[in-house]
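Quick one: examine this chain and its backbone structure tokens and tell me how the chain folds. Here goes:
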Amino acid sequence: MRNKLLDVSSFMPGMTIRTCAAISFAAVVSLSACSQASDQTKSSGTPANVTLTDAQRQNIRLYTVTQSQFRTTVEASGVVDFDNEQATSVLAPFSGPVARLLVSPGDQVKKGQALATVASPDFAATVSAYRKALATAQTARRVADLDKDLLQHKGVGEREAEQAETDAANAEADRDAALQGLAALNMDPQSIADLRAGKPVERFEASINAPIGGTVVERLITPGELLQAGTSPCFIIANLSRVWVMAQLFGADAQSVSVGDTAQVETGIGAETLSGTVENVASQVDPNTRSVSVRVAVNNPAGTLKKQMYVRAVIQRHQQSTGLLIPASAILRDDENLPFVYVLQKDGSFARVHVTLGTNLGDQYNITGGLNSGDKTVADGAIFLQFTQDQ
């Protein structure tokens, strides 16, 4: 220090060594005080408020925090499936080898349309049974009518006429039952009409008909394959204009979704989204994934959604919630990655206030702690305040 004072006096020849020493001491004390103030600001961890000039305030936008109503959204991944209420597996109604296939996968079919024919011995036996029942019923009816006429002329007894009428009624019941057997085997109405008229049937082939209208999505049989009645799956038909998206929700998300909530299904194909509605929320947790399955019904008029396709579902609750919403642009992060905003103070300065983030609503956040209704936060230009404060 003495050498320093001597250096100072050499530049100030009018001062004594004592005077130079006093000036140097005062400078050291002043620098020490500034250093202590700076250290106190760093140790406090609370940056001083930011004050802007009128010109600088033209570059920011304030947002007044108020209580607002909003609907929360939940995002989940899902898999496309057929609408099981409009899809069915077609089983063989009779046994026998496949004779002809009449449709291919992707074909549109109507309800009752023939899908394949089967050379079925069951069909031949049912046709034969109907022919016998028809002939027996016709004969029994003629006998009953004849006895009824003879009874009026005292040609037969009353008991005989009643028995003939009973036999005719029984034969007609057997005929009707055999006719129902033909209908159960999907025999076409024209062939049935020919049988009733006594005309021969050229081929004893039964047809497998579509129980619903829709698209043939799978064909499970080949020509010549032997089918077993009631057990052999033949086709899968589905109405693809409406499908299901089976989404998986975890934890609190599963509790926030209910039947009737709307959903937007993102296919990942361009920017296309499809609208849907939550129709079912599972009542139990999947033990393997610990998730809750949610079924979303989606209109699919263009056939964009395919079975087993992975999609993203954004479900919006129909029940409204209330909270403090602020623009997402107002939220910044400090050195510890904690969220904060700048709030206008009474003296015109801006203070850094840490907040607790709630639901993310896209371009807004629900704030659950740190702010009060009526606070004015910096919505645009907050990053400028942070830069100024950190200098």
In short: The chain has eight helices and 23 strands.
